[in-house]
UniProtKB/TrEMBL annotation:
Organism name: Azospirillum picis
Membrane-spanning segments: 6-25, 46-69, 81-101, 108-128, 143-164, 176-196, 225-247
Family annotation (InterPro entries): CheY-like_superfamily, HATPase_C_sf, HATPase_dom, His_kinase_dom, HisK_dim/P_dom, HisK_dim/P_sf, MHYT_dom, PAS
Domain Histidine kinase: 418-631
EC code(s) of this entry: 2.7.13.3
Keyword Acetylation: no
Record lineage: Bacteria, Pseudomonadati, Pseudomonadota, Alphaproteobacteria, Rhodospirillales
Listed SMART domains: HATPase_c, HisKA, PAS, REC
Domain (Response regulatory): residue spans on this chain: 651-768
Domain PAC: 336-386
Annotated protein name in UniProt: histidine kinase
Claim: Ligase is one of the keywords in the record: no
Reactions performed catalytically: ATP + protein L-histidine = ADP + protein N-phospho-L-histidine
PAS domain ranges (all copies): 259-312
Residues that bear 4-aspartylphosphate: 702
Length: 768
């Protein structure tokens, strides 16, 4: 195009292009926010401002460049086309900025963004050229047009690559300068591609395709002044936009600084050590808790490899862990957490609970390690393990002691059973012989001696019976028969019975009659009361004994109170143990064996009655039994008992392998008028019965027989011969709970040796 350019306006156009490019690239760069995972947050308002700045800079440079052109031909501009050129500059070039800002320079996004921006510059230029109005026809050189397009696209692509590949401001300046050069070069290349040919027809005729009718030049501002005003206004707007962006970034920086300060305050005041390292393993942050834990100052650690905080072999292997993680992505600590060991400045090693989180700053990987000194926890865990081991050892020892105690208890039970059986055998024969002699020596001078012997035998029987009671309770064969009954008659009868015994030793015995009814087993409750009363008589030297029932609200408390020797407070529970006697160091048999209160506690527990004792040494003791009250019922008057007529005697079969007992029992039974078959075994008894051809009225068999057989088996064999079940009694001196339970299950009557003659006579009379 013929003419020349104003150098100052050309320079102004370049300045406008460079400044507009820088403002646009700067806004677009900062519009791209921090990455959130794999997605990027983009400030759309800043990006729109960047597009507007780029479009305004390109358009203003183009317009100032057009005004810088000097020609003899007057030139005006069509407002619509000029406005369209501005919109194209903003829209098309802005699309390129949007593309690269959202996706960062990549293999395909950068060429696309550069092409869009370049086409925005080119389209703005040639649409702006089309808006010129003059008396000439424009024509274009195709090669120069292609060159202008290539320049625009290449410059735009290079500028975007420089501006977005890093965060350095100098590279954005270089990109803006390159973009400005590209825009100016494209503009003046495009101007050089245009040619003007004077019009050959008058105004008003139809123009050729490349001819635009020029309007008459309008009076007003000169081209230089218009260019300066346009450029200045554009620069001012761009400057305001840039200043606004700077202020926004400053506010953002202050907010970021505040967040960093809060983060730093949180990190520094955290009770757990927090260490931040980069992907090379170098420490970039070391909080106060870490200083206290490891003994280093932060200045001694920051910038050095974090392996300095690790003992061997972790110290040497740490960098290999990082490189393997970067290479394979295999997580061993990152994002998982585990227990490790740390090394203090003094070289001491301690256990740590470590969790590591990964994050990124741009393209840099960062790792935050949060640690906790678990020395105290480890010590507590070790203490728990030791305590558990000690507890297990103690449990094993306790089990062993329990097993030993159980073995000792079983041995004691077996010993008592064997001793009781062996003692009862001769004692039983003595009882029978003494009774047989008492009938024959009734008026003989030796009768008193026989009576004394019988009394001694009775005392020995009482002791053996106490042992038997304990064995039966341990065996669980005592089953209470609980019922409602009047307590008064039981107290009256026991008081009347023991009043004579108490008087014989110089004691008084009083009782308070009661109209109360209780729920219990009458026989077992009587056994408890007898033991308590006998115990009171035995340990009271002078004074009296009181028996009565106390009403305590809805409950009843049975009391046996004496004025005896008393019990020390620390011994009130010991007296309920077997064979415990506080005032019988010489083991006087007249004071018992120390089993009475043990039986009381066992029977009370079986019945569900509470037992309590209160005592003052030297002043006496009180034993209290808590009973469950029952609703009183009318007591029917006893009917006159029918007179038992004498019954005929029958045949008694006696089976016992002890010849002495067999002879003594036979002598006693024959003295009573019975016919007796005495045999040492079931076979012998059966043979005798077959010879006699008679059916027995009763069978009396010892439990232990020869050849390991039992009395239960002997009775069963005799039943088989008789063909009918006759009454049977099993005699035993065995206190083994298993033996007692076996006889109970057989259904036969059980008597424990030594059996007194009156008891045996009552049983025989009842069965006859």
């Amino acid at each position: 195009m013929p003419g020349y350019y104003d150098p100052l306006l050309v320079a102004l156009s370049y300045v406008i292009a460079v400044f507009g490019g820088y403002v646009a690239l700067d806004l677009a760069h900062h519009a791209h926010g921090a990455r959130d995972g794999k997605k990027s947050k983009v400030d759309s308002r800043r990006l729109a401002g960047a597009a507007l700045a780029l479009g305004a800079g390109i358009w203003s440079m183009h317009f100032v460049g057009m005004l810088a052109f000097r020609t003899a031909m007057p030139i005006n501009y069509d407002p619509g086309m000029t406005a369209l050129s501005f919109l194209l500059a903003v829209a098309v070039s802005g699309a390129g900025l949007f593309s690269v800002a959202r996706n960062r320079p990549r293999r395909f996004t950068l060429p696309v963004a550069g092409t869009l921006t370049g086409f925005g510059i080119v389209s703005m230029h040639y649409v702006g050229m089309a808006g010129m109005r003059m008396e000439a026809r424009l024509s274009y050189d195709t090669l120069l047009i292609v060159a202008s397009i290539v320049i625009a696209i290449a410059a735009s692509t290079a500028a975007l690559w420089l501006a977005f590949r890093t965060s350095r401001p100098l590279e954005r300046v270089a990109g803006a300068a390159l973009l400005g050069i590209g825009v100016v070069a494209m503009h003046y290349t495009g101007m050089a591609a245009a040619g003007m040919e004077p019009a050959t027809e008058l105004a008003g005729t139809t123009a050729m395709p490349h001819t635009i009718a020029a309007a008459a030049p309008a009076p007003g501002l000169s081209a230089n002044l218009l260019a300066v005003l346009t450029g200045g206004a554009t620069l001012l707007l761009l400057a305001l936009a840039f200043i606004s962006s700077l202020l926004g970034r400053r506010n953002q920086a202050e907010q970021t600084a505040g967040q960093d300060a809060r983060y730093r305050a949180i990190v520094d005041t955290a009770v757990d050590p927090i260490v931040v390292i980069n992907e090379e393993g170098l420490v970039e942050s070391f909080n106060r808790a870490a200083e206290q834990t490891f003994g280093y100052q932060s200045t001694e650690v920051i910038g050095r490899n974090v392996s300095m905080l690790m003992p061997e072999p972790f110290h040497s292997a740490h960098d290999g862990y990082l490189s393997r993680y970067h290479r394979t992505g295999e997580r061993r600590i990152v994002g998982i957490g585990r227990e490790v060991e740390g090394r203090r400045k003094d070289g001491s090693v301690f256990p740590l609970d470590l969790s590591v989180g990964e994050w990124q700053v741009g393209r840099r990987r960062m790792y935050t390690g949060i640690m906790r000194d678990i020395t105290a926890r480890r010590a507590a865990e070790d203490a728990i393990l030791r305590a558990r081991d000690e507890a297990e050892a103690a449990r094993i020892e306790a089990v062993a002691a329990r097993d030993a105690a159980e073995r000792a208890d079983r041995a004691k039970t077996k010993f008592l059973a064997a001793a009781s059986h062996d003692l009862r055998q001769p004692l039983q024969s003595l009882f029978f012989f003494a009774h047989a002699l008492s009938d024959k020596l009734e008026d003989h001078p030796t009768a008193p001696l026989l009576a004394s012997m019988t009394e001694s035998l009775s005392g020995l029987r009482v002791m053996l019976d106490s042992l038997l009671d304990v064995s039966r309770l341990d065996a669980g064969v005592v089953k209470p028969s609980v019922t409602d009954f009047a307590l008064g008659p039981l107290l009256d009868r026991l008081a009347e019975e023991y009043r004579l015994r108490a008087g014989e030793v110089g004691l008084g015995l009083r009782h308070v009659s009661s109209s109360a009814w209780v729920r219990s087993d009458p026989a077992l409750l009587e056994r408890i009361l007898r033991n308590l009363i006998e115990n009171a008589i035995r340990y009271t030297e002078q004074g009296s004994i009181l028996i009565g029932c106390l009403h305590r609200g809805d409950a009843l408390r049975l009391a046996v109170i004496d004025q005896g020797i008393g019990i020390p407070p620390e011994k009130t529970q010991d007296i309920f143990q077997e064979f415990t006697q506080l005032a019988n160091p010489e083991r006087d048999r007249r004071k018992g064996l120390g089993l009475g209160l043990a039986i009381v506690r066992r029977l009370a527990g079986l019945l569900g009655h509470g037992v309590a004792v209160r005592s003052v040494p030297g002043r006496g003791s009180g034993f209290f039994l808590d009973l469950s009250p029952a609703v009183p019922r009318p007591i029917p008057k006893p009917a006159r008992a029918p007179i038992d007529l004498p019954r005929g005697k029958g045949l008694i079969v006696v089976v016992d392998d002890d010849t002495i007992i067999l002879l003594s029992m036979r002598a006693m039974l024959e003295e009573w008028g019975y016919d007796v078959v005495a045999a040492v075994s079931a076979d012998e008894a059966i043979e005798s019965l077959l010879n006699l051809g008679r059916q027995p009225a009763m069978i009396v068999a010892d439990y232990r027989l020869r050849e390991g057989r039992t009395g239960v088996e002997a009775i069963r064999d005799i039943y088989g011969v008789c063909g009918v079940r006759v009454p049977a009694v099993v005699l035993t001196g065995d206190t083994d709970p298993a033996r007692i339970a076996e006889v109970q299950r057989s259904g036969h009557h059980l008597l424990h040796k030594p059996v007194s003659a009156p008891i045996l006579r009552d049983i025989l009379t009842a069965a006859a």
